[in-house]
UniProtKB/TrEMBL annotation:
Keywords: Methyltransferase, Transferase. The keyword Iron does not apply. InterPro entries: DNA_methylase_A-5, DNA_Protect_Modify, SAM-dependent_MTases_sf, YtxK-like_N. It comes from Companilactobacillus kimchiensis. This is Adenine-specific DNA methyltransferase.
Length: 337
């Protein structure tokens, strides 16, 4: 499909979003979630005569036109992610809820692939406890699916019901089976039997001190860091030997609460990798993030010989990035699970 056709598809998707936003009186993100649900189910949902018959007729014409494009899964995902970015911009979405770029999902999937390959896993239960728009999880699954090596069963949690709806509808359009739940991920989880977690963690203070009280990573005084609590809660909910791949601030081990996080890590998990993400992905040094790979104690898990550390090269630098993939393979050879 040509770039012009891709633009036409996006324009039609945007037209449907605008109609639904006006008719339902919702945010752009909520309108996009509704659009994707309609596309997936092949019909326009109407509740209490909203949207009205005129709007329904216009939407049906648009959805019929979208079907005629015959996009590949990759092209479809590109169109949806551009729509998410536009919706976030129009809604003035807060930084913690912005979509995770595809490049980070690709890198996370490469790390997961090498670990799972060494462990010879065929079926993997994955969770994203802070799923947001769903792009990190969808990209992660799509990349692993392309290898034809694993059966991925995925779950998603988030405390924003609009984003949970978007994740669910996004995954349905992509023909992925993701169970999405609206909940505070620091609170108790109902899902069990989880092998792996990936998360682009929101950064900041967790406001409910009572919920934080049971965690070893809680602050001694005042509010605790939400990303610390989420790491602990997620690792607690994994199977023995389970893997957590977390996108965190690069300075995570240099803050006023870093000591509590480090003490918990020593007692409960193996720190297997700390990798700064490519600097080109971030607008400033302050915004720089890293990938931390943790493994829960238990099973056959053990500390790898050398913690993988360094800066991941830009994905647009093929030679350097291939070198990084070679490093990943050598590191993952020591993984047990």
């Amino acid at each position: 499909m040509s770039e012009k056709d891709m633009q036409s598809y996006f324009d039609k998707l945007n037209e449907a979003n605008s109609l639904l936003k006006k008719s339902l009186r919702v945010s752009n993100i909520e309108a996009l979630a509704e659009t994707l649900t309609n596309i997936s189910d092949g019909k326009v949902y109407v509740e209490n005569d909203v949207p009205d018959k005129d709007t329904v007729a216009k939407l049906e014409v648009i959805y019929k036109g979208l079907k005629d494009f015959n996009l590949t899964p990759l092209q479809l995902k590109q169109a949806i992610t551009v729509s998410i970015i536009k919706s976030e911009k129009d809604d003035k979405t807060e930084v913690n809820k912005l979509m995770t770029p595809d490049a980070i999902g690709l890198i996370a999937s490469l790390i997961a692939y090498e670990i799972l390959n060494v462990q010879d896993k065929k079926s993997v239960n994955v969770v994203d406890p802070t799923v947001g728009s769903g792009n990190l999880l969808v990209e992660f699954i799509e990349q692993l699916n392309m290898t034809d090596k694993f059966k991925i069963n995925a779950a998603a949690l988030d405390n924003d019901d609009a984003l949970v709806s978007l994740t669910k509808s996004f995954s349905e359009v992509m023909n992925l089976n993701i169970d999405a739940y609206h909940q505070d991920s620091v609170a108790e989880w109902d899902i069990t039997d989880i092998d792996m977690a990936i998360a682009d963690l929101p950064v900041g203070y967790y406001p409910v001190d009572e919920n934080a009280a049971k965690f070893k990573t809680k602050a001694d005084k005042g509010h605790s860091y939400a990303h610390h609590l989420l790491i602990e809660q997620t690792m607690n909910n994994l199977n023995d030997g389970g893997i957590g791949i977390f996108i965190v601030p690069s300075q995570i081990f240099q803050t006023d609460q870093a000591k509590k996080l480090s003490e918990w890590m020593v007692s409960s998990v193996y720190l297997q990798a700390v990798l700064d993400l490519p600097t080109t992905l971030f607008a400033s040094k302050e915004a720089q993030k890293a990938i931390v790979v943790l493994q829960k104690h238990g099973g056959k898990a053990e500390q790898v010989g050398n913690v993988l550390m360094g800066t991941i090269p830009d994905t647009n630098n093929p030679k350097a990035f291939e070198g990084f993939k070679d490093q990943l393979q050598d590191w993952a050879k020591n993984f047990k699970g």
